[in-house]
Amino acid sequence: MSAVEADPAYNYILEDEAKAMGVKSAALILEGDTQIRITMSSLLTVTLKDAENGDTVLVPEQSGDTWRVYVEDISSTELDKMYVLEFSDGTSSATLTYSALSWANSQLSKSTSSDLTKDLARALYLYSEAAHVYFNK
Questions:
Q1: Banded model confidence at residue 67, pLDDT cuts 50, 70, 90
Q2: Contact 124, 55 (CB under 8 A)
Q3: Which run of H or of E encompasses 47?
């Protein structure tokens, strides 16, 4: 499995303006349904951009002194889908482009990631590829 390497096509893109507005981090949740969690230091309007199905406004949840939104129900054939999230503070907007495989890339690129975490990231790549073959997508 160590032959699986990060694919730069799945690197996340976080605009500097989004950082300045308070977008802090993105994480992958693998418990139950696969989800992407975005954490913000301030309350922002967040829109999941989708040209095919229409945009969706995500409702932030407060968690202590941070706010979180989730991209939920990511199927095995969508692990490589690059989601575009637009953040707005009322006067300006900026985007984050991110996928489940963006998380995998980050873990494979970090020198601080444990071998177990890197193996999980590689397995996610293999699972995504297998799902595409199995479902013929």
A1: very high
A2: no
A3: strand 45-49
Task: Report the pLDDT value the prediction gives residue 97, as an integer from 0 to 100.
Answer: 97
Summarised one tens digit per residue, pLDDT across range 83-120 is: 999 999 999 999 999 999 999 999 999 999 999 999 99
| Partners of 86 in the β-ladder | 47, 95
DSSP alpha helices (H): ranges in the chain? 16-21, 100-109, 115-134
Q: b/e string for 116-136 if b means 16 or more Cβ within 10 A?
A: eebebbbebbeebeebeeeee
Q: Quickly tell me which residue has 């095995």 as its tokens.
A: 76
pLDDT of residue 1: 59
- By the 8 A CB rule, do 90 and 52 touch? no
User: If DSSP codes are grouped into helix, strand and coil, which group holds residue 118?
Assistant: helix
Q: 99 and 79 in contact (C-beta within 8 Å)?
A: yes
DSSP 9: G
